[in-house]
Structure formats: structure tokens, C-alpha cells
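pinning this so it doesn't scroll away 📌
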Amino acid sequence: MKTANTTFRKSLLLLAFVFMLNSAFAPSRDAKEPQSIMLAILLDTSNSMDGLIDQAKSQLWKIVNELASAKCTDGRKPSIKIALYEYGNDNLPASEGYLRMVSPLTDDLDLISEKLFALRTNGGSEFCGQVINTSLKQLNWSDSRADLKMIFIAGNEPFTQGTVSYRAACGLAKEKDVVVNTIHCGSFDEGIRGSWKDGADLTGGNYMSIEQDRKTVYVPTPYDDRISALNEELNKTYVYYGESGEKKREAQATQDSNAASYGQSNKVERAVSKSSHAYRNSSWDLVDAAKEDESVIVKAKPEELPAEMKNMNGEQRKAYVKQKADERAKIQSEIQGLNKKRQEYIAKNTPAEAADNMLDAAMLKAIREKARVKNLSF
């Protein structure tokens, strides 16, 4: 009997231990909240990296559109947040490792675009370990193991530079369940010798090499003009409010222009992004804000509203915002439908070599691979 009791107690202890392990390592998330995709993009802005920054500017909306197509197992769409760092720039303080947080993790995609277009190259000393370490400590990373959390660091100097060990930084990333993906701007073998591959391997990330000076190849389609026209109509559905609302609406137009500076096809990529759930502006747009809290429509100060709304009462405001919301939903739906045809056309007409050795291709490959581990599909 004594032996049987001892065996029983050992079995209970073993079961308890297994339960604790499962609790510690299984993805956890409030059932009411969708999963999150969090990306920190760390760009080398030293003198030789103009081509890299150019690729990032011209490919931002294509990357966003890929993220926006992700689905959770329950059919919901994951929330998307992006952060941006620059490093290796002599204009930045040496005391801080020649790096800075350009933007924290945010769903304000216009802000990311604005900051990206403001980057300038100069210098410098490129401390990969330090910028990874800093991004891990500064950014508000999720604690949930269900979320997809990734760092993409791109540069061309050895990964070993600086006083902060890249191995220690990548070790911290692994503790936080953040995957570090490394993108060497140069030959594949040179990146291996410079420890870029080792940095990625430490967290199970992807190591890739790209040609940073290659120009993004766009494929014009028969659907571009209609989507571009719909984008103009979409902009008319935004109803600004708040102290900075009008400036944010102007910033939206500026980022449309920035995207268009790379051609009609890139402007269309941005329009597609604006028709997706990933493009949210609840901090300044009443249509988006009302989805979270309808009371904001009535609470908004008259002097911080568009001219046509200043003299409206509460019910009139609600009716006006609903009208704009209905218009937006219809426009977004048409853009999404046209984009399906557009993507089919692009797939048939894209030169095979155009998809290789570019920043977007490297990032999207890694995102798709790691998303499967988090039960996200595309």
C-alpha cells in the first residue's frame, strides 16, 4: 500500500509539472483580443545605405499589405504594430551608440511613413548588438507567446561591432520570444563571415542577403487608375477631430504624395493598405474612433471639427459620421475586390528576377515562415 501511495503521489507531481510547463510555454491571450504582429525595423543609415532606405520607402506599403492579409485561427485579423530605429549614423550621439528610436511600436502607419521618408544617411559606426538590445528594452513588446514578435535588422558592416555583444542581445530577444532576422546588404558569404547569420541563428530567425542598391520593380496593371481614383474618394470619408486632427489629415495627404513619388503602382499599394484593417486612425478620425467609442462623436469640441460639422448637434453628428463610415466601407470593399484581380495580374507578369534580393522579399519570407509557428495564415 505504501508503495502504491508513493507511486500515486509521484504521478500527481509529474502531472503538475507537465501542466506548469504547458502553462509557461503555450500561447496565451485573452479570448476577446486578437493576436498581434509586432515588427521592429532597424535600419543602418550610414553613408553607404541610401539604397537600403530607398527600398524601405518604396516597399513599406507592400509589406503592410502582406501583414494585413494575415488571419488568426478563429478567422479574425491580428493587430499590427511597427517600430522604426536607425543606427550607424554619425549625426546621432556617440554616447547612445549612434542610434535612435525613430518611432515606437505603433499602428499609426502614416507616422511610420513620415519618419521613414525623413531618414538621411551619414557616417558611421554600426553597433548591431547595441541597437537590438536597445529596441528590446525600449519598446513595449507584448508578453503573450501567441503574438508574432520580430526584429529585422539590416546593414553591411560586421555584426560584431560595439561594446554590447550581439550574442547577449540575441539572448535577451529569445527570453522575450522576439525573433531576430538579419539582412546583410552585400554578399551572402560575407554576411556569414561577419556573423550576421550567427545573430539570426541564436533566436531561430532568418539570415538573408540583399542587393541594397537595386531599384524596386513595379508592374503596372489595368486596375491601377481605378484604385487610385477610389483613394481620392476614400480620403473624403475622413472626419478629423481633436487638437491635432486637421494636421493629421494633412499628413495623410503628404504620405499619399510620398508614396506616389515612387510611381502610380506604389501609390496604389498605399491605397490598398488604406482599405485594410491595418490602417487605423482613431486618434484623429471620428469614423475610426467611433468604432471603439461612439461617445467621442458627441464629446468632440466644435472648434476642433471640420467646418461642415461645427454647428451640428449630437444626433446630426452621429448621422454624418455614419454616412461617412458607410461610404468608406463601400469604397474599401471595391478596392479590395480590384486588388485581388490586380495581384493575379502581377503574379502572371512579374519577371522572376524582380522578386529576389530585395528588402521586401527578405522580410516577407521570414514573416510567412514564423507566422506559421504562431498559427497565423495568409
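📌 and the second one:
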Amino acid sequence: MEIEQFYASGYNGSKRFTQSDVPTANATGFGSAADDYMDKGIDLNEQLIKNKPATFFMRVQGNNMNNAAIHHGDIVIVDRSIKPVSGKIIIAVVDGEMLIRRFEKTMNKIRLIPETNKLSPMEITEYTDFSIWGVVTYVIKSM
């Protein structure tokens, strides 16, 4: 009987990685003057993700948020740990379907507002199967 071997990824994330951890080779024997002024590179994980276990990437389908500059094919970063407040763009689950909409909450009613003129706002009643899945924090676009 053979034993299967599983290999895990060697990538442990880049949160604790700094630019000074990059090894440099100096074939000339003299260091570069620019080494003293080397800046840390931009790490998108550090910049865009605040709570890694609660953050997800989703690809948008449809054009219901065009007026908010979120288009078909864009990638949204969704943080499930952020409390939704009125005016934020959220991912909502309505009757089992995930929707991206602007959240509007007044004293006694909740509405989901699409950012397009083709659809009307959706009123959430006590009979609607509704939950907020997460809050959109960033949009990644392809140019």
C-alpha cells in the first residue's frame, strides 16, 4: 500500500515581509548608494485588506451598478466584518440570490438601491428572505 504525499504551498502571505528581506547580490564589491534610500514596494494585500479572514473577492456580473462606477467584469473586495451603514454598497442575499446594491436604511424601512436607471429600488419587508453578506470596500478594474 502506497502512502500519498501532499505538499502545501510555501507561500505564507506578505503581511510581515518587507523590502529589506529581499537578498541583494553585489558582484562588484561595493554597495549601491541607492540601497540606503530603497522604499518598500506596494503590497496590495496590506493596502486593500484590513481583515484577511473576513475578506473575499467577487467578480461582478451585470450592469446594475454602472452609475457607481462598478461594471460587468469588475472585481469587488468585500469585507464581512464591517457593519453596513446607510449609503454603503453591500452584497445582499435576497430570496437566495446575491445582489450588489447600495444600502439605504431609515427608521422603519430598508431599501436596496441599484445604481442604474433601468431598475427601481427594492423595498425589504418582513416577508423578504434578506441578509447582508458583506460590505464592498474596493473595486478592481481592468483597463
